[in-house]
Amino acid sequence: MQVFLVEDPAELGRVAARQGADVIRAALRQRGEATIIVATGASQFALLEALVREPGIDWSRVTAFHLDEYIGLPEAHPASFRRYLRQRFLAPLPVQPRFIAVDGDAADLVAEVARLGGLLRAQAVDLCFAGIGENGHLAFNDPPADFEVHDPYIVVQLDEACRRQQFGEGWFPTLEAVPEQAISMSIRQIMQSACLLLTVPDERKAVAAQRAIEGPVDPACPASIVQRHPNCTVLLDAAAASLLAQRPALRA
Q1: How many CB atoms lie within 10 A of CB 32?
Q2: Domain at 2-250, CATH class
Q3: For residue 50, which phi and psi values (nearest 5 degrees)?
Q4: What's the pLDDT at 252?
Q5: Residue 198, C-beta contacts closer than 8 angstroms, at least 6 positions apart
Q6: Strand-by-strand arrangement of the 153-157 sheet
Q7: Three-state secondary structure string covering the chain
Q8: Full-prediction pTM beyond 0.85?
């Protein structure tokens, strides 16, 4: 795991997008195609805005999965991650990638999880974009996370801290309106990505970042598992890095 500090918060997303784009371009050169996992939430706003402007990517040869989606939330809802990605990732692109949407309001959730798992198992994932939740979650794998489940996607229960974060970020009008379940990519599946790129902004992520980077690998802080990944980069702004005992190297 490599940890870097981007001192200017406004640059954090652009730095992450540039590094991620390099991985995508390399996969396209080497294999003729690329498979990525895209994340959502406030931590990904600037990254996606910059990523869609990166030159030299033939998006028609890219397959994009996403990490998670609320159960029972229609795509028209402002908090839907499908809606988020269609607006912030797909719509600005001149050429569309193959986008595998997680249908959280599918009539048959068992069938939907099986569909997603079958599609993902057939792919070698080159790059996973992600963040770290305020409670240390990775995707919607809230603590204590299951590090052993083999299924690519699973149904998870969202804990109160996670739901409070979603309400606090303004996605829902009340805490009660935040769904209690989601479909999430599993920890083991995320860890199978050839490259992990975590973007972590804001002081409210500082405790989780410190636990994930400097604490023990522990299901109580799901993101701590990335310490075991052979090719993981964590990019933080100064606020998110403020509790680290060791100051990370600067990334321009």
Answers
A1: 9
A2: alpha beta
A3: -80, -35
A4: 67
A5: 130, 131, 132, 223, 226, 232, 233, 234, 235
A6: 68-70, 181-185, 153-157
A7: CEEEECCCHHHHHHHHHHHHHHHHHHHHHHHCCEEEEECCCHHHHHHHHHHCCCCCCCHHHEEEEECEEECCCCCCCCCCHHHHHHHHHHCCCCCCCEEECCCCCCCCHHHHHHHHHHHHHCCCCCEEEECCCCCCCECCECCCCCCCCCCCEEEEECCHHHHHHHHHCCCCCCHHHCCCEEEEECHHHHHCCCCEEEEECCHHHHHHHHHHHHCCCECCEHHHHHHHCCCEEEEECCCCCCCCCCCCEECC
A8: yes
Name the residue ranges covered by the structural domains of the chain: 2-250
Mean pLDDT by 10 residues, the chain (252 residues): 92 96 98 97 93 97 97 94 96 96 95 97 96 96 96 96 92 94 97 98 96 97 98 97 93 75
Contact 16, 128 (CB under 8 A): no
Distance CA 136, CA 210 (A): 10
CA nearest 139: which of 177, 207, 196, 194? 196
d(Cα 97, Cα 104) in Å, to the nearest integer? Answer: 21
Amino acid at 226: V
Tokens of 123: 């792919």
